[in-house]
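Minutes, project check-in
Item: structure for the 203-residue chain
Input as provided by the requester:
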Amino acid sequence: MFEFPEFSTLQRRAIYFVLAASLSVGAIFFSLAHGNAAAAPTPSLSPLPTYSLPPLPPAKIVVDVAGKVLHPGIYKLPRGSRAAAAIKAAGGQLRGVSLTDINLAEVLTDGQQIIVGAPPISTASAKSKKSAASKGKITSGTININSATVAQFEQLPGVGAVMAARILAYRTAHGPFATIEDLTKVSGMGKSKFANLKSFVRI
């Protein structure tokens, strides 16, 4: 059977000293390791990107109701309102005023103007000018009757190829016109025909 050797007092003290020194060294290493772990910087997390939502459109729109309504003016209406709602907000059209020229189902936009009872765009004079333009006739400006060609004379209202040739023949035979009224001396140029074209000719 194994027996532990007996140590002298001096040997026991030496063993205690070695153990105490070992424990001290271990405690120092533990403290150093713990301190390094605590001092180690923690990684910083970058902030997540932020996204801003687009602003919502305003819930109200502003429209101008003008013309023949009971209360013309500026009105705030819910977005998506139609023309009929704007006219109703202005008190409705005056008695005898027709709304056939307005699309009452039109969806309004912010800043839009509605004119109730506006005169129609196509008037008699506008139709006359449109008809003349469609026939290749002059609708604005003037023609110098002392230098115009046959083709230019044909652009005058009521003047065809025959009358244009007569005007040129008269000018050739009698010399330059002294006044625009001299056109009435041309055969076939009556007062009514001259009245239609006199605003388009000059000397």
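Outcome recorded: Residues 121-126 have pLDDT under 50 and may be disordered.
No further action items on this chain.
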